[in-house]
Amino acid sequence: MFLEQGIKPENSFWKYLIGSIFIITASFIGQIPFSLAVYFNYNGEGAFPTDNDSAFKIFDPNVTLFLVMASFVFAFAGIWFVVKYLHHQTLLSITTSREKVDWNRILFSFLLWSFFSILSFSFLYFNAPENFVWNFKLVPFLILVVIGSVLIPIQTTTEEYVFRGYLMQGFANLARNKWFPLLMTSLIFGSMHWFNPEVTKMGNIIMIYYIGTGLFLGIITLMDEGMELALGFHAANNLVGALLVTSDWTVFQTHSIFKDLSEPSAGFDVILPVVVVYPILIFIFSKKYNWTNWKERLTGNIKSIKSSN
Questions:
Q1: Transmembrane region positions (predicted)?
Q2: Residue of 98, 103, 105 lying closest to 225 (CA atoms)
Q3: How far apart are CA 32 and CA 14, in angstroms?
Q4: Max CA-CA distance within the chain?
Q5: Pairing between β-strand 258-260 and β-strand 132-134 as defined by DSSP bridges
Q6: Angle between helices 61-81 and 32-41 in degrees, nearest 10
Q7: CB-facing half-sphere around the CA of 180: CA atoms within 13 A
């Protein structure tokens, strides 16, 4: 079973705290190239950029995307090091309960959410075409495709390994149940988006979407006894979004196909994915993979496992 693979007497929760600090430190190290690039490109005019919003505007969007996404390579290396040398586990053990990673699950989830994303954007576009302009430029877009296809999955995979893999097993070691890891990782995942410019523009109501997305990813991970579906969904969400549409008020601006000119606002459209779309996805996954025993998989207790050492 997925969570049980990390339950060991020697896996005390303080190890996960130390491991988290190590991973965060690795992530900060990965941000050094971007910080140096900002420093050496500062021409002395105006105030030195001290926040992400102003720093991201210094470079071409493709350069910014490359520098920021590259930091996740360091974070992923930090995860591998902590899992192997602090917890004496394999990456597979925090990925899935299966004997090997099920790439078909990742691909199915990726394609399913890509379809939903394109469908929802098409609805918005044809409903209010005046809110969008054609932003396509062949060469910058092709560069975006290359950078995004390589580095965005690394970014999303790193986040999934942190939240749905490492921390979920960590909180399971602490609480010895499944509902507490599910709720805690969802809340922490949502709170990590608190400083995104979308929150400033739309208000705190958008946190329902972020926390709800974390809850959705946690549910499909626990029900499927592995992260594959979450990995595919998250990669599709970020990659398709980066390629399809950009705006001046999102975290990143990209050389996407369209640009959204509308004034951001949060209403039922923010809640819709959480209360309608995500349940539909869960239903599709449950039917395809024959999920059963929902209460036990999502809220059941975890028995202590004796150390194999």
A1: 21-42, 62-86, 106-126, 138-158, 179-196, 202-222, 229-246, 266-285
A2: 98
A3: 28
A4: 65
A5: antiparallel
A6: 150
A7: 11
Instruction: State pLDDT tens for residues 41-66.
Output: 876 666 667 666 677 778 899 999 99
Distance CA 141, CA 39 (A): 27
> Two tokens at 267?
């209403």
Distance from C-alpha of 15 to C-alpha of 283, rounded to nearest angstrom? 36
- 191 token code pair: 């709170």
Q: What one-letter code names the amino acid at 73?
A: V
The C-alpha atoms of residue 165 and residue 189 are separated, in whole angstroms, by 12
CB atoms within 10 A of CB 27: 19
What torsion, rounded to 10 degrees, do the Cα atoms 297, 298, 301, 303 define? 40
Residue with tokens 């092709």: 142
d(CA 229, CA 152): 16
**Can you tell me whether residue 146 is helix, strand or coil?**
helix
The three-state secondary structure class of 133 is strand
The whole-angstrom separation of Cα 171 and Cα 169 is 6
CA-to-CA separations, 168 to 4, 106, 157, 187, 252, in angstroms, rounded: 11, 19, 15, 12, 28
Contacts of 222 (CB under 8 A, 6+ apart): 2, 3, 178, 182, 297, 298
Phi-psi region of 266 (alpha: psi -120 to 50; beta: other; left: phi over 0): beta
Burial 133-167 (b: 16+ CB within 10 A, else e): eebeeeebbebbeebbeebbbbbbbbbbbbbbbbb
**Tens-place pLDDT, residues 197-236:** 777 777 788 899 999 999 999 999 999 999 999 999 999 9
Integer Rg of the chain from CA? 20
